[in-house]
Design goal:
- This protein has 346 residues and is of the alpha/beta class.
- The chain has 2 domains: 138 residues, 2-Layer Sandwich (Nucleotidyltransferase, domain 5), CATH 3.30.420; 180 residues, Hexokinase, domain 1.
- 35% of the residues lie in helices and 22% in strands.
- The chain is built from 13 helices and 14 strands.
- The strands form 3 sheets. Strands 1-12-11-10-13-14-9 form a 7-stranded mixed sheet, sandwiched between helices. A 5-stranded mixed sheet has the order 4-3-2-5-8, sandwiched between helices.
- A hairpin with a 7-residue loop joins strand 3 and strand 4.
- The two termini are 29 Å apart.
- The N terminus is likely disordered.
Length: 346
Protein backbone atom coordinates (compact mmCIF):
# COMPACT_ATOMS: atom_id res chain seq x y z
CA UNK A 1 0.00 0.00 0.00
CA UNK A 2 1.33 3.44 -0.93
CA UNK A 3 0.56 6.40 1.31
CA UNK A 4 1.94 9.94 1.41
CA UNK A 5 4.99 10.70 3.60
CA UNK A 6 4.36 11.12 7.34
CA UNK A 7 2.50 14.33 8.05
CA UNK A 8 2.50 15.42 4.43
CA UNK A 9 -0.26 13.58 2.51
CA UNK A 10 -1.41 15.15 -0.70
CA UNK A 11 -4.26 17.62 -0.44
CA UNK A 12 -7.61 15.88 -0.45
CA UNK A 13 -6.23 12.46 0.44
CA UNK A 14 -8.06 12.27 3.74
CA UNK A 15 -10.90 10.39 5.34
CA UNK A 16 -13.38 11.93 7.72
CA UNK A 17 -13.65 10.95 11.39
CA UNK A 18 -17.31 10.05 10.88
CA UNK A 19 -18.67 6.98 9.05
CA UNK A 20 -19.70 9.13 6.09
CA UNK A 21 -17.69 9.44 2.88
CA UNK A 22 -14.28 11.04 3.27
CA UNK A 23 -14.37 12.63 -0.20
CA UNK A 24 -13.66 16.34 -0.17
CA UNK A 25 -16.27 18.57 -1.81
CA UNK A 26 -15.85 19.76 -5.36
CA UNK A 27 -15.83 23.54 -5.74
CA UNK A 28 -19.29 24.85 -6.64
CA UNK A 29 -19.87 26.14 -10.16
CA UNK A 30 -20.74 29.62 -8.98
CA UNK A 31 -17.96 32.18 -9.04
CA UNK A 32 -19.64 34.60 -6.66
CA UNK A 33 -17.65 36.38 -3.98
CA UNK A 34 -17.84 36.21 -0.22
CA UNK A 35 -21.45 37.30 -0.27
CA UNK A 36 -22.42 34.20 -2.26
CA UNK A 37 -22.05 30.50 -1.56
CA UNK A 38 -18.63 29.92 -3.09
CA UNK A 39 -17.08 29.57 0.37
CA UNK A 40 -17.31 27.17 3.29
CA UNK A 41 -17.21 28.33 6.88
CA UNK A 42 -14.54 26.74 9.08
CA UNK A 43 -14.35 27.25 12.83
CA UNK A 44 -12.12 26.12 15.69
CA UNK A 45 -14.14 26.48 18.89
CA UNK A 46 -12.31 26.15 22.20
CA UNK A 47 -12.88 27.06 25.81
CA UNK A 48 -10.74 30.20 25.47
CA UNK A 49 -10.92 31.26 21.82
CA UNK A 50 -13.30 30.81 18.91
CA UNK A 51 -11.56 31.16 15.54
CA UNK A 52 -13.66 31.54 12.41
CA UNK A 53 -12.68 31.82 8.75
CA UNK A 54 -13.81 31.10 5.21
CA UNK A 55 -12.19 28.82 2.65
CA UNK A 56 -12.77 27.73 -0.90
CA UNK A 57 -14.36 24.25 -0.89
CA UNK A 58 -11.75 21.52 -1.05
CA UNK A 59 -8.89 23.79 0.05
CA UNK A 60 -7.13 24.30 3.36
CA UNK A 61 -6.20 27.99 3.22
CA UNK A 62 -8.41 30.09 5.53
CA UNK A 63 -9.26 33.68 4.65
CA UNK A 64 -11.16 36.42 6.52
CA UNK A 65 -10.03 34.91 9.82
CA UNK A 66 -11.39 36.45 13.03
CA UNK A 67 -10.95 35.54 16.69
CA UNK A 68 -13.43 35.84 19.55
CA UNK A 69 -13.06 35.36 23.31
CA UNK A 70 -15.37 32.40 23.92
CA UNK A 71 -16.22 33.29 27.52
CA UNK A 72 -17.56 36.68 26.40
CA UNK A 73 -20.49 34.99 24.64
CA UNK A 74 -23.44 32.94 25.85
CA UNK A 75 -23.03 30.42 23.05
CA UNK A 76 -21.81 29.92 19.51
CA UNK A 77 -24.80 31.46 17.73
CA UNK A 78 -23.98 35.08 18.72
CA UNK A 79 -20.42 34.59 17.47
CA UNK A 80 -21.62 33.17 14.15
CA UNK A 81 -24.09 36.00 13.77
CA UNK A 82 -21.39 38.60 14.38
CA UNK A 83 -18.89 36.92 12.07
CA UNK A 84 -21.27 36.32 9.16
CA UNK A 85 -22.54 39.89 9.38
CA UNK A 86 -18.98 41.22 9.31
CA UNK A 87 -18.05 39.20 6.22
CA UNK A 88 -21.41 39.28 4.39
CA UNK A 89 -20.82 35.58 3.77
CA UNK A 90 -23.51 32.99 2.97
CA UNK A 91 -21.51 29.75 3.19
CA UNK A 92 -22.45 26.65 1.24
CA UNK A 93 -21.36 24.51 4.19
CA UNK A 94 -19.74 24.76 7.60
CA UNK A 95 -17.47 22.58 9.68
CA UNK A 96 -17.27 23.48 13.35
CA UNK A 97 -14.38 21.92 15.26
CA UNK A 98 -15.49 21.76 18.89
CA UNK A 99 -13.40 21.20 22.03
CA UNK A 100 -15.57 18.40 23.38
CA UNK A 101 -17.14 15.08 22.45
CA UNK A 102 -19.65 14.90 19.60
CA UNK A 103 -22.97 13.14 20.20
CA UNK A 104 -23.53 9.80 18.49
CA UNK A 105 -25.91 11.38 16.00
CA UNK A 106 -23.20 13.86 15.03
CA UNK A 107 -25.60 16.76 15.54
CA UNK A 108 -24.86 18.03 19.04
CA UNK A 109 -21.78 18.79 21.11
CA UNK A 110 -21.08 20.19 24.55
CA UNK A 111 -17.87 22.11 25.14
CA UNK A 112 -15.79 20.54 27.89
CA UNK A 113 -14.74 23.85 29.43
CA UNK A 114 -17.79 26.05 28.73
CA UNK A 115 -21.54 25.48 29.36
CA UNK A 116 -22.39 25.57 25.65
CA UNK A 117 -24.61 23.15 23.77
CA UNK A 118 -23.99 23.35 20.02
CA UNK A 119 -26.74 21.98 17.76
CA UNK A 120 -25.79 21.63 14.08
CA UNK A 121 -29.35 21.45 12.71
CA UNK A 122 -30.45 24.49 14.69
CA UNK A 123 -27.47 26.54 13.46
CA UNK A 124 -28.11 25.41 9.87
CA UNK A 125 -31.69 26.68 10.08
CA UNK A 126 -30.83 29.89 11.91
CA UNK A 127 -28.09 30.94 9.50
CA UNK A 128 -29.40 29.34 6.30
CA UNK A 129 -26.35 27.13 5.81
CA UNK A 130 -27.22 24.01 3.77
CA UNK A 131 -24.80 21.74 5.66
CA UNK A 132 -23.35 22.20 9.16
CA UNK A 133 -21.01 19.54 10.43
CA UNK A 134 -19.58 19.11 13.93
CA UNK A 135 -16.22 17.44 14.54
CA UNK A 136 -13.96 17.11 17.55
CA UNK A 137 -11.38 19.88 17.64
CA UNK A 138 -8.50 17.43 17.51
CA UNK A 139 -10.01 15.63 14.55
CA UNK A 140 -9.64 19.00 12.82
CA UNK A 141 -6.14 19.51 14.23
CA UNK A 142 -5.11 16.09 12.95
CA UNK A 143 -6.50 16.88 9.51
CA UNK A 144 -4.70 20.20 9.69
CA UNK A 145 -1.41 18.35 10.17
CA UNK A 146 -1.89 16.89 6.70
CA UNK A 147 -1.93 20.44 5.31
CA UNK A 148 0.59 22.12 7.64
CA UNK A 149 3.37 24.10 6.02
CA UNK A 150 6.76 22.43 6.42
CA UNK A 151 8.25 25.59 7.91
CA UNK A 152 5.80 25.35 10.82
CA UNK A 153 7.02 21.87 11.83
CA UNK A 154 9.90 21.73 14.33
CA UNK A 155 11.63 18.37 14.74
CA UNK A 156 12.31 17.44 18.37
CA UNK A 157 13.19 13.80 17.64
CA UNK A 158 13.95 12.57 14.13
CA UNK A 159 13.22 8.91 14.83
CA UNK A 160 12.82 6.42 12.00
CA UNK A 161 9.42 7.15 10.45
CA UNK A 162 7.30 4.47 8.80
CA UNK A 163 5.00 5.99 6.13
CA UNK A 164 2.37 3.27 6.63
CA UNK A 165 2.17 3.61 10.42
CA UNK A 166 -0.34 5.63 12.48
CA UNK A 167 0.37 9.20 13.51
CA UNK A 168 -0.57 10.76 16.84
CA UNK A 169 -1.63 14.40 17.18
CA UNK A 170 -1.68 15.61 20.79
CA UNK A 171 -1.88 19.10 22.16
CA UNK A 172 -2.23 21.07 25.38
CA UNK A 173 -4.22 24.27 25.44
CA UNK A 174 -7.26 25.04 27.57
CA UNK A 175 -7.50 21.25 27.79
CA UNK A 176 -5.56 18.27 26.43
CA UNK A 177 -6.65 16.92 23.05
CA UNK A 178 -5.65 13.86 21.05
CA UNK A 179 -6.45 12.22 17.72
CA UNK A 180 -4.94 9.59 15.44
CA UNK A 181 -4.26 9.63 11.71
CA UNK A 182 -4.55 6.14 10.26
CA UNK A 183 -3.35 5.36 6.70
CA UNK A 184 -6.14 3.68 4.78
CA UNK A 185 -6.09 2.91 1.05
CA UNK A 186 -3.73 5.78 0.11
CA UNK A 187 -5.70 8.17 2.30
CA UNK A 188 -5.81 9.28 5.94
CA UNK A 189 -8.61 8.38 8.30
CA UNK A 190 -8.95 10.50 11.45
CA UNK A 191 -9.89 8.89 14.76
CA UNK A 192 -10.72 11.55 17.38
CA UNK A 193 -10.52 10.68 21.06
CA UNK A 194 -10.76 12.05 24.57
CA UNK A 195 -7.37 10.88 25.78
CA UNK A 196 -6.95 14.00 27.89
CA UNK A 197 -9.36 12.45 30.37
CA UNK A 198 -7.42 9.26 31.04
CA UNK A 199 -5.89 8.90 34.49
CA UNK A 200 -2.62 10.71 35.17
CA UNK A 201 0.16 8.29 36.08
CA UNK A 202 3.02 9.78 38.18
CA UNK A 203 6.43 8.31 37.35
CA UNK A 204 8.64 9.76 40.12
CA UNK A 205 8.36 11.29 43.58
CA UNK A 206 8.09 14.86 42.24
CA UNK A 207 5.20 13.93 39.99
CA UNK A 208 3.61 11.94 42.81
CA UNK A 209 3.57 15.05 45.02
CA UNK A 210 1.81 16.99 42.25
CA UNK A 211 -0.65 14.10 41.80
CA UNK A 212 -1.52 14.06 45.51
CA UNK A 213 -2.13 17.81 45.54
CA UNK A 214 -4.36 17.56 42.47
CA UNK A 215 -6.19 14.61 43.98
CA UNK A 216 -6.93 16.64 47.10
CA UNK A 217 -8.47 19.31 44.86
CA UNK A 218 -10.35 17.22 42.31
CA UNK A 219 -10.59 13.59 43.34
CA UNK A 220 -9.83 11.63 40.17
CA UNK A 221 -6.74 13.12 38.53
CA UNK A 222 -6.88 13.14 34.74
CA UNK A 223 -3.99 13.92 32.41
CA UNK A 224 -5.66 17.23 31.56
CA UNK A 225 -5.44 18.36 35.20
CA UNK A 226 -1.67 18.72 34.75
CA UNK A 227 -1.16 18.98 30.98
CA UNK A 228 -3.08 22.10 29.97
CA UNK A 229 -3.01 25.82 30.61
CA UNK A 230 -4.89 25.44 33.90
CA UNK A 231 -2.63 22.48 34.65
CA UNK A 232 0.51 24.61 34.34
CA UNK A 233 -1.07 27.20 36.65
CA UNK A 234 -1.91 24.43 39.15
CA UNK A 235 1.60 22.95 39.03
CA UNK A 236 3.17 26.36 39.65
CA UNK A 237 0.80 27.07 42.54
CA UNK A 238 1.56 23.68 44.13
CA UNK A 239 5.33 24.18 43.79
CA UNK A 240 5.55 27.87 44.73
CA UNK A 241 2.30 28.93 46.38
CA UNK A 242 1.89 31.59 43.68
CA UNK A 243 -1.11 31.77 41.36
CA UNK A 244 -0.11 32.91 37.88
CA UNK A 245 -1.44 32.53 34.38
CA UNK A 246 0.41 30.24 31.95
CA UNK A 247 1.52 33.34 30.05
CA UNK A 248 3.01 34.89 33.19
CA UNK A 249 4.83 31.68 34.09
CA UNK A 250 6.23 31.33 30.57
CA UNK A 251 7.32 34.98 30.55
CA UNK A 252 9.24 34.54 33.79
CA UNK A 253 10.95 31.39 32.53
CA UNK A 254 11.77 32.74 29.06
CA UNK A 255 12.59 36.38 29.70
CA UNK A 256 13.77 36.55 33.30
CA UNK A 257 15.18 33.01 33.56
CA UNK A 258 13.21 32.68 36.78
CA UNK A 259 14.17 29.37 38.42
CA UNK A 260 10.81 28.55 40.11
CA UNK A 261 8.94 29.27 36.87
CA UNK A 262 11.41 27.11 34.93
CA UNK A 263 10.96 24.29 37.44
CA UNK A 264 7.19 24.49 37.02
CA UNK A 265 7.50 24.33 33.23
CA UNK A 266 9.96 21.44 33.46
CA UNK A 267 7.45 19.51 35.58
CA UNK A 268 4.70 20.37 33.10
CA UNK A 269 6.80 19.21 30.13
CA UNK A 270 7.84 16.05 31.96
CA UNK A 271 4.18 15.11 32.44
CA UNK A 272 3.52 16.11 28.81
CA UNK A 273 6.35 13.99 27.43
CA UNK A 274 5.33 10.97 29.48
CA UNK A 275 1.70 11.00 28.35
CA UNK A 276 2.65 11.71 24.72
CA UNK A 277 4.99 8.73 24.81
CA UNK A 278 2.38 6.50 26.44
CA UNK A 279 -0.22 7.38 23.81
CA UNK A 280 2.35 6.90 21.05
CA UNK A 281 3.12 3.43 22.41
CA UNK A 282 -0.60 2.62 22.55
CA UNK A 283 -1.02 3.48 18.87
CA UNK A 284 2.49 2.41 17.78
CA UNK A 285 2.72 5.84 16.19
CA UNK A 286 5.81 5.15 14.09
CA UNK A 287 4.41 7.54 11.50
CA UNK A 288 5.11 10.41 13.86
CA UNK A 289 3.91 12.29 16.92
CA UNK A 290 2.81 15.90 16.37
CA UNK A 291 2.52 18.36 19.26
CA UNK A 292 -0.30 20.79 18.52
CA UNK A 293 -2.26 23.08 20.84
CA UNK A 294 -1.50 26.60 21.92
CA UNK A 295 1.07 25.99 24.65
CA UNK A 296 3.91 24.05 22.99
CA UNK A 297 4.88 26.76 20.45
CA UNK A 298 5.13 29.34 23.24
CA UNK A 299 7.52 27.09 25.17
CA UNK A 300 9.59 26.01 22.17
CA UNK A 301 12.89 27.60 23.38
CA UNK A 302 12.62 25.55 26.59
CA UNK A 303 12.04 22.12 25.03
CA UNK A 304 15.68 21.24 24.27
CA UNK A 305 16.86 21.50 27.88
CA UNK A 306 13.60 20.17 29.36
CA UNK A 307 12.77 16.60 30.46
CA UNK A 308 10.15 16.26 27.69
CA UNK A 309 12.00 13.83 25.42
CA UNK A 310 13.51 11.87 28.29
CA UNK A 311 10.00 11.31 29.65
CA UNK A 312 8.67 10.50 26.17
CA UNK A 313 11.32 7.81 25.66
CA UNK A 314 11.31 6.40 29.21
CA UNK A 315 9.49 3.20 28.29
CA UNK A 316 11.66 0.63 30.11
CA UNK A 317 12.31 -2.34 27.82
CA UNK A 318 10.65 -0.49 24.91
CA UNK A 319 12.77 2.68 25.07
CA UNK A 320 14.41 1.81 21.74
CA UNK A 321 10.98 1.61 20.13
CA UNK A 322 9.98 5.00 21.55
CA UNK A 323 13.16 6.56 20.15
CA UNK A 324 12.17 5.40 16.67
CA UNK A 325 9.05 7.57 16.77
CA UNK A 326 9.48 11.00 15.15
CA UNK A 327 8.34 13.87 17.37
CA UNK A 328 7.55 17.22 15.77
CA UNK A 329 6.11 20.40 17.22
CA UNK A 330 3.47 22.13 15.08
CA UNK A 331 3.71 25.92 15.25
CA UNK A 332 0.87 26.62 12.80
CA UNK A 333 -1.80 28.77 14.49
CA UNK A 334 -4.28 27.93 11.72
CA UNK A 335 -4.02 24.16 12.20
CA UNK A 336 -7.59 23.64 13.40
CA UNK A 337 -9.05 25.98 10.78
CA UNK A 338 -7.19 24.19 7.99
CA UNK A 339 -8.47 20.84 9.17
CA UNK A 340 -12.03 22.13 9.51
CA UNK A 341 -11.85 23.58 6.00
CA UNK A 342 -10.86 20.17 4.61
CA UNK A 343 -13.61 18.44 6.58
CA UNK A 344 -16.39 20.83 5.56
CA UNK A 345 -19.02 19.16 3.41
CA UNK A 346 -20.34 20.52 0.13
Amino acid sequence: MTVPPPGRPKAGQVNSPEPRSGELPSPPSTGRGAGGRSYVLCADIGGTHARLALAKPGTSEPIAEKHYASADYSGLAPILSEYLASTSARPSAACLAVAGPIAENGQQARLTNLPWLIDAAQLARQFNIPSVRLVNDFAAAAMGVTAANEDTLVTLQAGSPLPTAPQLVIGAGTGLGMALLIPEDKRWRVLPGEGGHIGLSPQNTGQLAIWHALHDLHGRVTAERAISGPGLTAIHRILTGQTMTPEEIAHLALVDDNLPARQSIDMFLEFYGAIAGDMAMLALARGGVFLAGGIAPKLLPLFAASPFLAAFNAKAEHEALARQMPVRLVADPQLGLKGAALLAGP
